[in-house]
Design a protein that fits this description.
Keywords: ATP-binding, Cytoplasm, Kinase, Magnesium, Metal-binding, Nucleotide metabolism, Nucleotide-binding, Phosphoprotein, Transferase
EC number: 2.7.4.6
Function: Major role in the synthesis of nucleoside triphosphates other than ATP. The ATP gamma phosphate is transferred to the NDP beta phosphate via a ping-pong mechanism, using a phosphorylated active-site intermediate.
Radius of gyration: 14 Å
Number of strands: 4
InterPro entries: NDK-like_dom, NDK-like_dom_sf, Nucleoside_diP_kinase, Nucleoside_diP_kinase_AS
Shape: globular
Structural class: alpha+beta
Order of helices and strands: EHHEHHEHHEH
Protein name: Nucleoside diphosphate kinase
Bound molecules: guanosine-5'-triphosphate, magnesium ion
Number of helices: 7
Strand content: 15-25%
Distance between the termini: 9 Å
Strand order of the largest sheet: 2-3-1-4
């Protein structure tokens, strides 16, 4: 079964939406096979979002991701990467489809409640940044 990496971002944990987001995830048939609440360090956030280093919003993004706790997760299911992207909705909640996590919960393009890997290859890299093998129980 395919796996993807998920982050419930600070805007969502701050508003006690961890359970609500997880209900959407599980309702879509994805299984949460690893999960922990952490405070991301600046190093972790800069590494994780390294591809965006040259973008104008990079500093703001790192500030946001380290501002308050996040919940990192590994989700498992058939076509998990694409399925999670679908139920997350568009990056900007103004463009997100009805019923998606971002449509329901996101505050803005920056504070958009969740992250999901954009490919199977990146999912493996992102999972390995935050979880050791024995923390993932399928
Ligand atoms: P992720 O799942 O978080 O990677 O979102 P994404 O793949 O839908 O978007 P992308 O990878 O293009 O951007 C990564 C993250 O950077 C977004 O989820 C936002 O949190 C943030 N971001 C993107 N564009 C903007 C922007 O214009 N302003 C701000 N403040 N943040 C942005
Ligand atoms: Mg992305």
């Amino acid at each position: 079964l395919e796996r993807t990496f998920s982050i419930i971002k600070p805007d969502a944990t701050r508003r006690n939406l961890t359970g609500a987001v997880n209900a959407v995830i599980e309702g879509a048939g994805l299984r949460i096979v690893a999960q922990k609440r952490i405070k991301m360090t600046r190093d972790q956030a800069e590494t994780f979002y390294g591809v965006h280093r040259e973008r104008p919003f990079f500093g703001e993004l790192v500030e946001f991701m380290t501002s308050e706790p996040v919940v990192v997760q590994v989700l498992e299911g058939e076509g998990a990467v694409a399925k999670y992207r679908e139920i997350m909705g568009a990056t900007n909640p103004a463009n997100a489809a009805e019923g998606t996590i971002r449509k329901q919960f996101a505050l803005s393009v920056g504070e958009n409640s969740v992250h999901g890997s954009d490919s199977v290859e990146n999912a493996a890299i992102e999972v390995a940044q935050f979880f050791s093998g024995n923390e993932i129980v399928g």
